[in-house]
């Protein structure tokens, strides 16, 4: 296995002088050198062939001892210096101080096909930032991160990627439901890949300590490597940088809203500076459409990170980033302007996204109302978001009569759709039909467009849980099945038709299938 190592983060930025792997506060440094823990008996479960290709690993090398050694953390790749990053963050709206890579270890950066990728192991042992944690990850959360990050990419949502999923062979003690019942679970390691894993929290760390020198170095590094189009750093460029991050963050969140993804832990340490979905913890997918839903049991009470609040939280997190970058600019107004613009851009981008879900090409006055009326209808009775939009593409212009039948499969309790509720739905369909008549596209053309933005298959929590249950028994076939299916989430795949279905009743009450704790 021959990789073109092209380290930049640990070459250009300052390291922690302390080389001991002891838990501590780290000052004046971007990262600490640390070696992965040697796993007891690593075993490869799955690889992403596409990511292998992206970083320059031939498919014949995947089964080699070298691959197993490097991506399980058993052995260091030659001439590399792994490290854990220092960052801080706001968690659930509160300042949490120093956090850092508590169980992620960055191995190296690789250059391939003119692209540079940072390669990171999650669950490879403790670091100076592990605080009270053990630095490890269990199989269930690793399967979820592995499958979802690749699935999100194929849905067209900006995201970090995954190269491999391994068993470590170690046992990890966890209290999965946070109810005092601890048990040993299988340990696992995911190799994650992204251009960079820098988060809002990396900037917040230095700003909070008034370490302007490192704040500037980090910002300049980020602009140079990831926003080179902005040019040489200056006050003006820092403002443009913030604007670019705001735009990317907004774009990412609009995609989440489109596919019904709920991140679950939008803390500022989980916000990528590249606007990529990062840190797949207790995330989930909307089954019944519900603005108020969150998958995270820790957030059960306040529902800060509920589906409908994600765009606002994006703004709140950007405000924290603005506060951090302020020290480089010394002027609040440009940041305020950008944050105000985010709100306006959001309204417009959201409406455009909804138009695309409904198959509307043109902007027309009244579209906002059409969308809001639809949202009201979706809330009348539990309605599966994914199935609803997918089936709506079967609507034929002018055929209003009985058209609710088309989407019937999306209702969890179809018998509830009667009387006033049925009337409301029928009114909406009449409005939708009127609106469609203003469009030029034929039914068939519209269907093709709608099916390109409304996925047929998403990684519902119960599907991931079935794969996890099998994996815990040493069966990995379902992981591969879901992985293959989710490569083409917008295509009709007759082979996988059974996954185009509502969440089964048993899944409502089974751990891991509806809400999840942060335990991982
Ligand atoms: P998360 O909510 O998963 O994004 O984690 C928040 C912080 O806790 C990050 O700094 C993580 O690195 C750290 N963390 C989470 N789980 C562990 C663990 N098992 N061991 C060490 N640190 C952890
Ligand atoms: Mg995190």
Q: Tally the helices: what do you get?
A: 15
H and E string = HEEHHEEEEEHEEHHHEEHHHHHHHH
Distance between the termini: 31 Å
Main sheet strand line-up: 2-8-9-7-6
Record field, number of beta strands? 11
Shape: globular
Spans with pLDDT under 50 lasting ≥5 residues? none
- Rounded mean pLDDT is 97
Task: Work out the helicity level.
Answer: 25-40%
SS strand fraction: 5-15%
User: Number of domains in the coordinates?
Assistant: 4
The radius of gyration over CA amounts to 24 Å
Binding site for ATP: 100, 102-103, 122, 134-135, 192, 199, 279
Enzyme class: transferase
Function: Nucleotidyltransferase involved in the post-translational modification of proteins. It can catalyze the addition of adenosine monophosphate (AMP) or uridine monophosphate (UMP) to a protein, resulting in modifications known as AMPylation and UMPylation.
Binding site for Mg(2+): 270, 279
Describe the protein in words.
The chain is built from 15 helices and 11 strands. The protein has helices at residues 9-12, 49-55, 65-72, 139-155, 200-208, 212-226, 235-259, 310-329, 333-358, 367-378, 385-392, 419-436, 443-451, 461-472, 477-485; strands at 31-33, 43-47, 83-85, 88-91, 94-98, 104-112, 115-122, 161-174, 183-194, 261-262, 284-285. A 5-stranded antiparallel sheet has the order 2-8-9-7-6. Strands 1-3 form a two-stranded antiparallel ribbon. The two termini are 31 Å apart. The mean pLDDT is 97. The structure holds adenosine monophosphate and magnesium ion. Magnesium ion is lined by residues 269-270, 279.
């Amino acid at each position: 296995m021959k990789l073109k190592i092209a380290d930049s983060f640990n070459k250009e930025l300052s390291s922690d002088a302390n080389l001991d792997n002891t838990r501590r506060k780290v000052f004046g440094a971007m990262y600490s050198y640390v070696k992965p823990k040697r796993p007891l008996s690593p075993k490869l479960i799955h690889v992403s062939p596409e990511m292998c290709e992206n970083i320059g690993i031939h498919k014949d090398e995947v089964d080699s001892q070298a691959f197993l050694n490097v991506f399980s953390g058993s052995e260091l790749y030659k001439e590399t210096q792994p490290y854990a990053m220092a960052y801080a963050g706001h968690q659930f709206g509160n300042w949490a101080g120093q956090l850092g890579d508590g169980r992620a270890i960055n191995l190296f950066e690789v250059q391939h096909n003119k692209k540079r990728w940072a390669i990171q192991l999650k669950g490879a042992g403790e670091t100076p930032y592990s605080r009270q944690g053990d630095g490890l990850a269990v199989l269930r959360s690793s399967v979820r991160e592995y499958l979802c990050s690749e699935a999100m990419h194929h849905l067209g949502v900006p995201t970090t990627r995954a190269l491999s999923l391994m068993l470590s062979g170690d046992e990890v003690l966890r209290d999965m439901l946070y109810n005092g019942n601890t048990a040993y679970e299988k340990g696992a390691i995911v190799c994650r890949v992204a251009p960079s894993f820098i988060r809002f929290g990396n900037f917040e760390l230095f700003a909070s300590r008034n370490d302007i020198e490192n704040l500037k170095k980090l910002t300049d590094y980020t602009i140079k490597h990831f926003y080179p189009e902005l040019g040489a750093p200056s006050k003006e460029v820092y403002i443009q940088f913030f604007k670019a991050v705001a735009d990317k963050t907004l774009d990412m969140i609009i995609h989440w809203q489109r596919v019904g993804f709920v991140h679950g832990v939008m803390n500022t340490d989980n916000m990528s500076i590249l606007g990529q979905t990062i840190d797949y913890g207790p995330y989930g997918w909307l089954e019944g459409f519900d603005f108020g839903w969150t998958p995270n049991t820790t957030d059960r009470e306040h529902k800060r990170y509920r589906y409908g609040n994600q765009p606002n939280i994006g703004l709140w997190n950007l405000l924290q980033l603005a506060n951090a970058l302020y020290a480089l600019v010394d002027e609040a107004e440009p940041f305020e302007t950008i944050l105000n613009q985010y709100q306006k851009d959001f309204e417009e981008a959201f409406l455009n996204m909804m138009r695309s879900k409904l198959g509307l090409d043109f902007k027309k006055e009244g579209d906002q109302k059409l969308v809001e009326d639809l949202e009201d209808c979706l809330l009348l009775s539990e309605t599966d978001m994914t199935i609803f939009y997918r089936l709506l593409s079967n609507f034929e212009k002018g055929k209003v009569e009985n058209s609710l039948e088309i989407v019937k499969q999306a209702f969890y309790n179809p018998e509830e759709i009667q009387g006033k509720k049925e009337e409301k739905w029928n009114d909406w369909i009449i409005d939708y039909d009127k609106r469609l008549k203003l469009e030029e596209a034929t039914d068939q053309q519209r269907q093709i467009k709608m099916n390109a933005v409304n996925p047929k298959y998403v990684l519902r929590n119960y599907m991931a849980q079935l794969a996890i249950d099998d994996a815990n028994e040493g069966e990995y076939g379902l992981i591969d099945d879901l992985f293959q299916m989710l490569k083409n989430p917008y295509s009709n795949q007759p082979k996988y038709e059974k996954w185009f279905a509502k969440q089964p009743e048993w899944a409502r009450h089974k751990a891991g299938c509806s809400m999840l704790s942060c335990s991982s």
